Amino acid sequence: MKKLVSILMTAAMSLSLAACGGSSSGTDTSSSGSSAAADSGESKGKIAYIVGALGDKSFSDSGEAGMQILKSEGWEEKTFELGDASKADKYEDGILDAIDQGYQYILGSSTYMEIMAKLAEEYPDVKFVGFDENWSDDQLPDNMTCIFYAQNEGSYLVGMLAAGMTKTGTVAVDVGVENPVINDFVTGFVNGVMDYNTAHGTSVKVVKAAVDSWTDPAKMKEIVLDQARNNNADIFYQVAGGSGDGLFEACTELNDVWAIGVDSDQYAMYKDGENPEKADVILTSMLKEVGNSLVSIMHSIENGDDSMWGHTTHLGLAQDSVGIVDNDFYEANTPEDLRNEISEAADKIKSGELTVKSYFDFENDTEYNAYLANVQ
User: Fold this and answer.
1) What phi and psi, each to the nearest 5 degrees, are found at residue 184?
2) Paired residues of 114 in beta bridges
3) 323-351 in b/e burial notation, b at 16+ Cβ within 10 A?
4) Which fold has domain 152-287+322-375?
5) H helices within the chain, ranges in order?
């Protein structure tokens, strides 16, 4: 388990190259023999990456960048796009298809956890890696591992940012589909706003909405425009996958507002993409290093570490697995004193001096909703 955490920083450097198109088959990400295997054409094994769809410039694409690194190192990899929730009855068939094609490692997000756990019992020779889910060890079969990210910690930082940047006193957090992991983003964001209010004597409010889809940017756009016009919100944090594009589009049509992206550096992704004008409203993004963590765990497996099987690994700010994008655009548009305050909070979280509230701390949704009511 320690090996997995210890190589995250090196994997992060390689993933940055891949995301910018700079990765090559000679990239060394601390996995012995990686470039040699890639140059020789020898396969290290077969990886199936299970996603709903690529192209979200966020969560799924972060994982895909990791897959490209692993391919460059000599792994055979195929991405299986299984569609949105309307195709949920076909998810198991899609994963079975990957197993039937001989893929020995199945990597899938929280959406597929229950299916993967079921199939892990039926296929003991196949290894399953679930990520973005907080399962206890006693829930995991011996041939399955789980990666859980402390998204509440990164969201705390952008909550502070939103509270410090708002001119209207109202900020928004807009999600794709509500579930425990997404609620953890919201909890951390609200905690950041609350602590900023306490420190500065402000009373910033938070409005929240859900699209009920990861792939409905049109509905997200309507929500954001409504929040701006009817709630006077001027900072918008999206945790919505492909639906988040609608938030950015709405912000380009509004005056004097900022968007905050998620999972990947969405400013960079849009600036280098087909809609660079959307980058100009993305103040920063809350990073969740999905690709890094998947590269790291495959390196651990390759190096003979089998300690992760049957266990969940927790990764947060202390492991550089979540955080805030600190790029030139962020620095140019965020006051230095606020940036310093956020950086100090990050250091306190890393050291353990500051503990961020988590959705998983609540006994039930009644407690969760009561917590959110503090800033509504």
Assistant:
1) -70, -40
2) none
3) bbbbeebbeeebeeeebebbeebbeebbe
4) Rossmann fold (3.40.50)
5) 2-6, 8-19, 34-40, 59-72, 91-100, 113-122, 151-165, 180-200, 217-230, 244-253, 266-271, 276-279, 290-302, 328-333, 336-351, 365-372
At the top level of CATH, the class of 2-150+289-318 is alpha beta
The DSSP bridge pattern shows strands 235-239 and 258-263 to be parallel
Vertex 243 angle, CA 164 and 319, to 5°: 55
Residues of the chain with CATH 3.40.50.2300: 2-150+289-318, 152-287+322-375
pLDDT tens by residue, the chain, 376 residues? 444 444 444 444 344 433 333 333 232 333 334 444 445 567 899 999 999 999 888 888 889 999 999 999 999 999 999 988 889 999 999 999 999 999 999 999 989 999 999 999 999 999 999 998 889 999 999 999 999 999 999 999 999 999 999 999 999 999 999 999 999 999 999 999 999 999 999 999 999 999 999 989 999 999 999 999 999 999 999 999 899 999 999 999 999 999 999 988 999 989 988 889 999 999 999 998 899 889 989 999 999 999 999 999 998 999 888 999 999 999 999 999 999 999 999 999 999 999 999 999 999 999 999 999 999 9
The 3-state DSSP class for residue 139 equals: helix
- The pTM of this model reads 0.80
Q: In angstroms, what is the C-alpha Rg of the chain?
A: 20
